[in-house]
């Protein structure tokens, strides 16, 4: 339990030091910490990896949402009835 708290503190400090958003990091760190604990008592490594993966997936999702909003919708004046 102490290691998971330490990993969360490290992840939070890394995110605040770089000025990046913590989107996906906390959830990923929690899941990675639990998975790492059960996969050989590597909760800290699992939490750090989970944070990185969660942050990456959140960034990809944000980029996809921006691209969908930037695409023009169908123009009703040019559609044939």
Order of helices and strands: HHH
Helix vs. strand class: mainly alpha
Low-confidence stretches: none
Shape by Cα distribution = elongated
Give a short account of the largest sheet.
Answer: none
Strand content: under 5%
Whole-number mean pLDDT: 77
Give the proportion of residues in helices.
over 70%
What does this structure look like?
The protein has 81 residues and is mainly α. It is built from 3 helices and no strands. Helix 1 runs antiparallel to helix 2 and helix 1 runs parallel beside helix 3. The radius of gyration is 19 Å and the shape is elongated.
Summarize the structure.
This protein has 81 residues and is an all-alpha fold. 73% of the residues lie in helices and 0% in strands.
Features:
81 residues; mainly alpha
SSE map:
Elements: H1 2-18, H2 25-38, H3 43-70
Helix pairs in contact: 1-2, 1-3, 2-3
């Amino acid at each position: 339990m102490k290691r998971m708290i330490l990993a969360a503190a490290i992840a939070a400090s890394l995110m605040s030091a770089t000025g990046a958003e913590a989107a996906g990091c906390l959830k990923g760190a929690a899941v990675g910490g639990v998975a790492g604990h059960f996969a050989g008592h590597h909760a800290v490594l699992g939490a750090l990896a989970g944070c990185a993966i969660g942050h990456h997936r959140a960034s990809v999702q944000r980029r996809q949402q921006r691209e969908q909003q930037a695409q023009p919708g169908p123009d009703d004046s040019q559609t044939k009835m």
